[in-house]
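Example record

One chain of 926 residues, shown exactly as stored in the release files.
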Amino acid sequence: MDLVLCHTTADFDTLGAAVGVTRLLPGSRIVLSGGAHPTVQTFLALHRDEYPLIERRAVDLDQVRSLTIVDAQNRDRFAPVADWIDWAEQQAIPITLYDHHTQATGDIRADHRVVEPVGAATTLVVEQLQSKNVSLRGAEATVMALGIHVDTGSLSFEQATARDALALAWLMAQGASQRAIAEFVEPGLSPTLQALLTEAMESLTVETQRGFRLASVLLSLENHVPGLSNLTERLMSLSDSDCFLLGAHYPLKSGSLSAGEDKLVLIGRVRGRAASSANGHGINFNEIFQPLGGGGHPTAAAVTLTTPNPQAVMGQAMAQVRSQVPHPPTARELMSSPVRTIRPGTTIQEAQRILLRYGHSGLSVVNAQDELVGIISRRDIDLALHHGFSHAPVKGYMTIEPKTIHPDTPLPQIEQLMVTYDIGRLPVLDGENLIGIVTRTDVLRQLHQDQQGIYADEDEEVPHRPPLPTRLPPPDMLTRRLQQALKPGLWDVLQQMAEAAQAQGWHLYLVGGAVRDLLRIPTSQTVELKDLDLVVDGYYQSAQVGAGVALAEAIKASYPAVELQVYGRFQTAALVWHKDSPNDLAGLMVDVATARTEFYPYPAANPEVEASSIRQDLYRRDFTINAMAIRLTRPGTGTLLDFFGGLIDLCEGRVRVLHANSFIEDPTRIYRAVRFAVRLGFALDSQTESYIQHALESGIYTQMQRQVAQVPALQARLRNELEYILEADYWQPALHWLERLGALQCLHPDLVMDAPLWHQLRRLTRWIEHFDLALQMRPWELRLQVLLAAVPPPDRGTVAEHLQLPLASQQRLGTLAAQEQAWLQALSTDLPPSQVVQQLREADLATLLLVSARHPRPLGQLVWRYLTQWSKVKPPLNGNHLKALGYRPGPRFREILDTLLNATLDGQIQTPAEAEAFLAAHYPPD
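Predicted structure tokens for this chain:
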């Protein structure tokens, strides 16, 4: 285990640097040596599960391989674990140190020291990440950006450097949340403002509306005070409010035109879900202040005016704030369902296995009546395992009487519960029934959506501008765009399906490639979507496996001509309108699936699938650009669900995998990654490429080939990917990419794209184009056979069989070596054409093309002449002519006609007269 130590009373810089180190040392864990700054504590209450933190008491020093110290150089800054540093020095455990306090005299003997004069230790780690081309998740970039902001005063402190600014810019490009930064960075205050801060904190009022905290204060000043906006920011932070309205008034000087009146300054701030979104719901201070002569942004605005009654103006402004408070999401909309539960008697070891299988960070414990009796977290399980109690029941370690919420509990209240009690999951009870659970992950996903709540303007082409994590296409615009991309009949079908889903209490989503293409193609261009993939989220009322089929059957009742296909264990349904359908639905197909999650029991296995929610359904997908969805049901029709940064990757032209083990679980995803990259003109994310290399070097594909009989579906998926690639116009760059990655070993370890093989493939393509064979044969299959013919002859037929190619292809590849050898020995350009034709005419066209591509001389020349000339030659006389000449029909007819054909091929005869003379000499009539 590699450990990263944060100093006591951890601030954002030490935490941010530590998080960055865990990306430099995959698998390392972070230890908070002793406590944390209150703001950091609040931050971790929501985000703890995003980072690899481990409790001090759960650390086994015998398993520690290295220590990394961040943001300090003295043992006393790590007092509770200072003996670990002593132990590491004694045991010669490698110690690395990152710090930016160059004037400090440290007493830690580090093997590798990075101590340089920058504003934040996090900057030093960022530079290391950049040099190694390591990419970050948004949560990682956010906490690291907070570290730099806080330690440099958002680049305003004297010690801030250009290196800090460059590091911040890179973190923003990696997806750092500006809203989170604005929420947790505290501005400095002047002495005058500090005094006003104390006065304001004593007199401010706080009220709660729909779960949001609204705070306000009216200050009486003697004269103008600069910096009131900073004061507002600090008051908002200290009052932990979602919206803050500060009023400050002072009397005008005597002798002025407005003597007797006051100058009133109003400053408004709003954050999070309380702020106005593209649909117009939420607090908008710009709208509130504009009629008064002020304005600004919806979330930050101000106005200065003259009034005889500051209290009345302040009251009117607060009334407008209250009227704009939005309806926040509720637990019903946020929760994951169905809930994974265990019994109190379940062992710690089994609970850990379930957590690993489903990727959860905690489990609900229910009794025999399915009533909630406790919660056990991953931390609880880690501690039990650390102390050797793997076979103990969870009831001894679970939290009893856990905090619970109702389906209608608003998100602000959920957040408050999580922060107040530092809990990561809240069961949702409807009466005594456990219907769902809201986790930190669910809250963070919603926060991510809210952070993208400043929508793009309708005239902006979202994928064709610098990517901004806070800009989404507005729901109304996305709905109109979708309607324009569908034929009227198909749009009507979607509307009916959405209504039918709502009637069942379900949500319906458009997912996959259609969403990707809708967002990728500029709004100025027309996009036509034909085949659609839909997912039904069974919601909390029922985790129905057959929800997708039920919805498809309801639509079929309105369209008798449509064909309903049902397949798979989860009864995915397909609605197919055949080409002869009488309306504009002809030739279209709609797949309808139930939201599900999957688990791979071992590498390269077939996944085990279970019903789940839309969030988990998107999470199981391969790449971020394919893991977005558009809601078709109310509320929120047209809302884009993008939990994994797919829109940013789409904007930047990047294919990024969702999971580190994705390519080990399913090797065909390497081919999918390359296919998407080449087809869309995208690049592979550097981290994704490193995951591919790790999977290839792990030996999993050699194991897969040995166990191919156990995973026939995996081979079928691989063949399908090869078909997509080799049938497309971009097959050559795709193969170049697969060769560069070393991914062709998935087919056979000896397959190498050398120059002769490239020549063979290109020659085959020219043959297909010359003879216009694309409609008669399957070019992808011919190209694949050329590839498989490049592996050792004993393995060709076996690989073809594993890929489930047609029997004829398997037999062709199995006998190819013998056939080639026979022809190479028997045929040459010196032979008369008749002997060449006699050898080649028994072979099928695919074999001739394959051999010709592999052996351009002499076999390729002979095959070319055979196909272009000799195969079209016919003798001057046919069977009717023979009968007219007195020859009796019988077995001799075939011999005579073959002899005439051979003589014609060899140029001995050309005309009927010459043929008759030839017959008279060689086959006189009876």
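Notes: The first helix runs from residue 12 to 24.
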